[in-house]
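User: Just a sanity check before I run the rest of the batch. Below are the structure tokens for the first item. I only need the designed sequence back.
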């Protein structure tokens, strides 16, 4: 059993060529990558290239296959048999409502205009799924509502219509039909209908000519006449109460329906004429018997057989290919980078660095990323002792990064409330270490702009820290506790001057030299001898008893 397949959108085939070209381009990029790796690493390139080569090739193949399958889905392949149904379309109906003063006549209760408005409201409740438009006309026309499925709005606008809705009075059926044609646009056939609700007066006589233009466009015009052949007076509101409209001669105007004119216009386009005075709900009856029935006959449900669109299957396959491709995305491994570095150095003729120094460098990088700065500094110092010049320079640069991270941490601690005074000095010391490490790296390799930029970065940070330290010096002096005053020797109380408020200032204490001390002691001893001699002389004169001086 053969399955015949066709494409419903074959014009998308250039995208299939684009998918194939994309696959070729990816293959060429992989080859160019392999050549660059060969030049950089040398004979050891296969060891590095084969780490993820199978994954890469599978990803390239899956991406290209998914793109090709998505292109096939866009072309919409179809096979097998299916039954399709053609559902009936809605009908576009333009309702032309006459709002001239003659429609105020009351030969139809309550009046011709109110009767027409009620029938439009009834139609709007029944004609769901169709589009309606409303044209108000008298001596002039106005499109009150374009074609819309909002039938409640049509009913509301029809209720509000009055002779004041248009600028000029009179009755011009030709202008009303022309406005209805403009509302229908390019629509033609059984699904485009014009219904005129009027009393049949056509003062300009252009109605028949406009009906022929509608027939040329394939548009049907139905007419509904409101009023009686005998006619009725046109009421108006005056100062004396209800009055009737009069002509220039003063005679009362009588408006009669003209069924012959309306029937002629309807027959010209293949439509129907209905007398609203003889048929209740004339507009609804016309819609049920002529408009909807004709539309059903033209757009009845038709069944047919054809091929079923199967675009879902290639689209699903494309999505599966892309999902698998995403799951196979290669991830960089540290071991791959280490092997590539070793092979590159060997190819360049340099000594292969010892494995312990390389492992120390990788441990330092991992510790720095984890925030373990102390362990990172130890591992970086071990890696810097490597015999390989290039590895040692990398370790020195990494030591600068670690020292700068320690500086930032110490600065944060120094800015915290209640920090120790020496915390800012710790940050300055780490910044100086970072500057020295980066300077060594920049001097060793002149083609390393990152090292030079980091040196400038360290200098800027040192300047900021010095300014912070200078700003905190006055604060330190103010925050230190005041020293306790030294105790002063007690002053003798002056009993003779009790009324004085201020005491004499205490004598200044001064340390005496040894010779001066000896001279002072000698003078005090001499005064004591003179005092004893004076007392003895006084006792001899008075024969007083001996007085002991202690």
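Assistant: Here's the designed sequence for the first item:
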């Amino acid at each position: 059993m053969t399955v015949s397949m066709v494409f419903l959108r074959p014009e998308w085939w250039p995208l299939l060529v684009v998918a194939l070209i994309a696959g070729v381009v990816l293959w060429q990029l992989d080859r160019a990558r392999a050549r660059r790796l060969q030049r950089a690493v040398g004979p050891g390139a296969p060891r590095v290239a084969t780490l993820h080569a199978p994954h890469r090739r599978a990803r390239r193949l899956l991406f290209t296959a998914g793109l090709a399958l998505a292109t096939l889905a866009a072309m919409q392949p179809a096979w097998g048999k299916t039954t399709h149904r053609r559902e009936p379309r809605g009908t576009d109906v333009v309702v032309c409502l006459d709002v001239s003063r003659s429609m105020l006549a009351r030969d139809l209760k309550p009046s011709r205009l109110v009767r027409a408005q009620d029938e439009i409201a009834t139609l709007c409740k029944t004609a769901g799924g169709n589009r309606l438009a409303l044209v108000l006309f008298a001596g002039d026309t106005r499109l009150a509502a374009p074609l819309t499925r909002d039938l409640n709005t049509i009913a509301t606008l029809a209720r509000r219509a009055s002779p004041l809705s248009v600028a000029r009075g009179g009755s011009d059926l030709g202008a009303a039909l022309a406005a209805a044609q403009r509302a229908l646009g390019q629509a033609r056939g059984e699904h485009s209908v014009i219904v005129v609700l009027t009393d049949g007066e056509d003062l300009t006589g252009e109605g028949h000519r406009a009906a022929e233009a509608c027939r040329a466009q394939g548009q049907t015009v139905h007419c509904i006449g409101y009023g009686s052949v005998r006619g009725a007076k046109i009421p108006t509101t005056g100062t004396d109460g209800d009055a009737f409209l009069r002509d220039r001669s003063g005679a009362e105007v009588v408006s009669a329906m003209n069924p012959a004119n309306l029937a002629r216009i309807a027959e010209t386009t293949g439509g129907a004429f209905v007398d609203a005075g003889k048929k209740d709900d004339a507009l609804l009856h016309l819609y049920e018997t002529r408009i909807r029935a004709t539309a059903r006959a033209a757009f009845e449900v038709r069944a047919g057989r054809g091929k079923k669109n199967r675009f879902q299957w290639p689209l699903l396959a494309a999505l599966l290919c892309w999902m698998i491709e995403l799951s196979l995305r290669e991830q960089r491994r540290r071991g791959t980078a280490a092997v590539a570095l070793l092979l590159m150095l060997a190819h360049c003729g340099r000594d292969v660095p010892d494995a312990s120094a390389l492992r120390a460098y990788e441990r330092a990088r991992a510790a720095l990323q984890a925030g373990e700065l102390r362990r990172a500094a130890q591992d970086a110092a071990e890696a810097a002792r490597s015999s390989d010049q290039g590895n040692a320079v990398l370790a020195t640069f990494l030591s600068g990064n670690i020292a700068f991270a320690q500086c930032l941490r110490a600065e944060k601690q120094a800015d915290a409330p209640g920090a120790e005074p020496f915390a800012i000095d710790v940050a300055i010391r780490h910044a100086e270490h970072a500057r020295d490490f980066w300077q060594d790296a920049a001097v060793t390799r002149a083609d390393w702009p990152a090292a030079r930029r980091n040196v400038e970065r360290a200098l800027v940070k040192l300047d900021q820290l010095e300014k912070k330290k200078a700003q905190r010096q006055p604060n330190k002096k103010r925050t230190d506790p005041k020293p306790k005053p030294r105790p002063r020797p007690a002053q003798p109380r002056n009993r003779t001057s009790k009324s004085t408020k201020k005491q004499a200032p205490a004598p200044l204490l001064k340390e005496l030299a040894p010779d001066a001390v000896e001279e002072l002691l000698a003078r005090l001893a001499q005064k004591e001898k003179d005092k004893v001699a004076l007392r003895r002389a006084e006792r001899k004169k008075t024969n007083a008893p001996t007085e002991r001086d202690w």
